[in-house]
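Q&A log
Question type: sequence-to-structure
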Amino acid sequence: MVILETGKVVCTGAKEISEAVEKIKKVANQLKKFGLKIKKDLEVKIKNITVTTNLKKDLNLERIAKSLLFEEVDYHPESFPGLIYQMDDLHTILIIFNTGKIVCTGGKNIDDATNSINKIKEKLTSIGVL
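Response status: OK
Response body:
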């Protein structure tokens, strides 16, 4: 849990959105005990979620980068081991590793992340790497 000077709180490590909300409210209650003023109508907004998945298959990132050349791909293996794919229509960013692991970030909800992962699976299947 990170508490910023602005009063915003960043919750990491939660497995479910409800768990994140619960943790944030618990921290707010603890801060009240220390004398900090916390709004009675504390509003928890999900700004960004990160989801990971494992395709359980090694991926050829160079082939993927070449196949998706004209799309939003950033792949520089000499400086970072993952392929970064920006999915503009869903406002998410996928980081794809050659181990088959994928990290999806930027979604506002689980559906954004699920849809992004499903779309990249379809693309990988269509170019013959999955």
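Response note: The mean pLDDT is 91.
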